[in-house]
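Archive entry: two folds, one per protein. Generate the first.
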Amino acid sequence: MRAGAPLWPVAVGIAWRQPHYQEAMVRGAAGIDFLEVVTEDFLAPGGAARQLLLEAARRFPLSLHGVGLGLGSAIGIDGAHLRQVRKLVDAVQPGQVSEYACFNRVHRPGAPIHLHARLPIPFSERSLSLLADHVDAAQEALGRQILMEPIATCLAWDEDALSEPAFFNALARRTGCGILVNLGSLIVNALNRGQRDEACVQAGLAWLDEIDPAVVGQYHLAGHSQVQEVAFGGQGDPVGEDVWSLYRHALGRIGARPTVVDRGRSPPSLATLTEEVARARREQQAFDREVIAPPPPRQDRRGRDSFPIQFQESDDDAA
């Protein structure tokens, strides 16, 4: 797999965070297909962080995962932030670019406030129209498709009128964006709705059965923790058996997609991450590669047959 190339469906990577920057650059990332980084960690031009990423982009395939655009914010998009993202995308040519489907900017007299938090959007027609407009604008500015990730949350809105998968199916149809499915978030959300144990897994399976396979562009495998009956993701917890069950179901129903093992900002050793990458590959191997690897065709919003989620075969597949 070449640096700067699109990611093939069976690629498995890691969320590359600061504790492993030096190790990966000095020793390499054997057994890992690509590195995903947080976009906002590298936005500032010049300096050591940007130079690190430019060097990594010459050596590894990359994926950029944004946490700050807040495309669900009613106040609109921060144009300066979006321009910085475009410059970074142009500089490193990542295989995929993703953003959270959330809001994080609100109005106040004088200037907007950036809340530095991922807050849930309503699953309503009004919210869908607003988010679709902002996704269109972001994709136009970046000159490429982006993947939108539903967030883990402990809140819901009274105005919710659509199920979460139906909402994101509609968003993808309207904008041509793809969907990043964090399987750990499906468990977190089920726990925060009061479901437990097998009921959480069944809720996740139902979610995966409702999402349109053609719009799914990436999976995240993540763990969770609970504090006083509230579940959270992104705390560095290992990927649980409940999430592995959802991954197997996703592979069988949706197919393989580039997969990221995400242990958050406090990850374990790189060796441990590599072990979880290897397990993801073993889960894939339980299926016929010809069945899970090809992405399904989809109609883009202009009515043409297209493959807006770009994949590339591995050298082994092409042989």
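Generate the second and append.
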Amino acid sequence: MDLKRLRTFVAVADLGTVSKAGLRLRISQSALSRQISDLEYECGFKLFDRIGRRLFLTTRGEQLLADCRGVLGQIGSLSERIELLKRGDSGVLKLAAPPQTIESVLSRFLPRYAKNFPNVRVKLTEALGLDQVPLLERGEVHIGIRHDQGVNPWFESLALPSDDVLAACCPSLQLGRDGMVDIVSLANHPLLLLDSGYSVRRLFNATCRVGDIEPNILLESRAPHTLLALAEAGQGVAIIPSVLRTDRYRLKIVRITHRRKPLRDRYVIQWDKRRPLPGYAQNFCAALAAYMREVLPITRPVVKVAAKHAICSGTSRRSRD
């Protein structure tokens, strides 16, 4: 159906005469009359009755008018939408990230981002690093936040601060010194580990293999906060990434090392370069990278003096509660 005919029909219905509608639409009366006749032929019924010099809607014409107004209104909204998309600051951004990144980073970043880019709607998918690969390759998400799992020829990466592997335990436990513990001395403690879907676990396992270390595994879990709760209760030492928030718990945090080198993994924002990123997605990546450089690591090792302060402040905080 020709949109010009619909606009002509609405104009004539609003103004009541062909002459006035012609002036508004800047077309001749004969051309306007032909458009009305063509629309009536297409519909198969009369739209107007002529009484004197004025045109009045028929019953069917009145019913069609509301639909025509709705269609033209949607066309106007679509035109505005297209203009917003051209500017590159409007659209739906599909993002995949691990649960601890969503909780610790995105939960605080997204409200800030929404203030600057109100026309971008972020759709989150919870997915661990390896699970993000098929999502990116199939185009189900635009970008993924993950640990870099080696070179993928189809992926483009934006480097972020490294994610350290940390040990979290009850503050009374004597674990390491100066905020660090070697993985060899750590292995004898009952360990609370994330399952193998987490990059921090795979890195921990790889280091144990290289060092010929047999860790004492007490529990494996997909829920990081389960491990933190058990560690706080003195039930073992939780092995966690530094991107995880631990401020709800009274814990001593130390960095895990091997041969005096900290265990850490490269953290990246990735996308499939075979699919061009929308402009708003590029803006999002830049803003998120700047924010993550500002806040990472979320959890930092606690040296001896700081640990004592953390215990006192944690105790006073619980007293107030």
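Annotation attached to the second fold: The longest strand covers residues 155-169. The chain has three domains: 3-87, 91-161+265-295, 164-264+300-320.
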